[in-house]
Amino acid sequence: MQVRNSSERYGAVAVILHWLVAVSVVGLAILGLWMVDLGYYSAYYRSAPFWHKSVGVTLAGILVLRLLWRAANRQPARLPNHKGWEVRLAGAVHTLLYLLLFAILTSGYLISTAKGQPVSVFGWFELPALITTIPQQADRAGAVHYWLAMGVLGLAALHALGALKHHFIDRDDTLRRMLGMRLRNRKEN
């Protein structure tokens, strides 16, 4: 597999960044839903939020890197069987996913820094608490964080269903291109 995107398929960097984002989002959602029910005396009461925050900050970096890589690389050509409405819907879902993910990451930062404490990222460095003056900051940001996360999970499910529809019903290379698989009856660049 080539490193950069070609007119036929996504390159290794785009594929790896895509799946890093997908695994991170699912993992953060599972961890986030699990950790909100932890009691004070749970062995994970402090460690689960530490990992959630650290992975969340890492995800922010991966998203920025992914957008920069996307801007610096051509996108594979639209497949001939893709209908106009499918292309527009996929574009809208991708844009909304990026916007919601950045909003979730921002709200997570606002929750974590509401009391003026910095966010430790794997113990390597800290993000300072720059905004602490919003009334009921942790509660308001927490509600935004939760509901936007549920929205992202719904959109990610729609995104996955679209890929599966292309793979199993349309039998085209949409999913294969993002899995790094050999394309059906196509010459690869």
Detailed description of the structure:
The structure is a single chain. Helix 1 crosses helix 4 (137-169), helix 2 runs antiparallel to helix 3 and helix 3 runs antiparallel to helix 4. Strand 1 and strand 2 form a beta hairpin. The protein is elongated, with a radius of gyration of 19 Å. It has a two-stranded antiparallel ribbon. It has 189 residues and is mainly alpha-helical. The chain has helices at residues 12-35, 47-72, 84-112, 137-169, 174-179, and strands spanning 119-121, 125-127. It has one domain (12-179): Up-down Bundle (Fumarate Reductase Cytochrome B subunit). The longest helix is centred in the last third of the chain and has 33 residues, at 137-169.
Low-confidence stretches: none
What is the helix tally?
5
Largest sheet: 2 strands, antiparallel
Q: What is the chains' assembly state?
A: single chain
| Helix/strand order, N-terminal first | HHHEEHH
Structural class: mainly alpha
Question: How many E-type strands?
Answer: 2
Radius of gyration: 19 Å
Mean pLDDT: 94
Strand order of the largest sheet: 1-2
CATH hierarchy, class: Mainly Alpha
Question: Architecture in CATH?
Answer: Up-down Bundle
Q: Report the principal-axis shape.
A: elongated
Explain briefly what this protein structure is.
With 189 residues, the protein is mainly alpha-helical.
Notable features of this structure?
single chain; 5 helices; two-stranded antiparallel ribbon; mainly alpha; 189 residues; elongated; Fumarate Reductase Cytochrome B subunit
